[in-house]
Amino acid sequence: MSRIGKQPIPIPSGVKVDIGDNSVRVQGSMGALEQTYPADVTVRLDEGKVIVERKGDSRKQRAFHGLTRALIANMVNGVSQGFTKSLEVVGYRVQQAGSGVNLQVGYSHPVVVAPMSGITLEVEGNNRIHVRGVDKQVVGEMAARIRRNRNPDPYKAKGIRYAGEQDRMKPGKPPGRMYRHATY
Known about the structure:
Strand order of the largest sheet: 11-12-7-13
Strand content: 35-45%
CATH class of the largest domain: Alpha Beta
Structural class: alpha+beta
Oligomer: single chain
């Protein structure tokens, strides 16, 4: 059985879960989200917890079991606490421009990024961006779109990276191994 799928999802206070025909709607203090789920799983409420069960034991049903449970858990977490993804701008500058951000990342023109619906962008100082929202998938997509404007370059130590992300350097030549041509 799926380790993720068999865990019940606790519903915190202030969150309302409505289960319809192949759809789940979650409302909380930060907003509301709706998600459809496949017919291979069933979702039910039981004493303040959401329980996801699968109808069979095929590979597809096992995959949908854990996926559906994770999506619903993210919805419950999102409407109660919200999600935040932080980006660091290294070697360049960023400014708040209304609800969006203005990136000055080495191009001849500033790059203005407008937020997607349900997302708020906050600038801390001149080198940190916080992407906040209710839907985890949309928060990640918005952060990826901002990062894509100038991917981190480990050799110049510049670019836009996620907070805490480590640069991956390409390996150099191993020391002491020189390739010599044979002399005849």
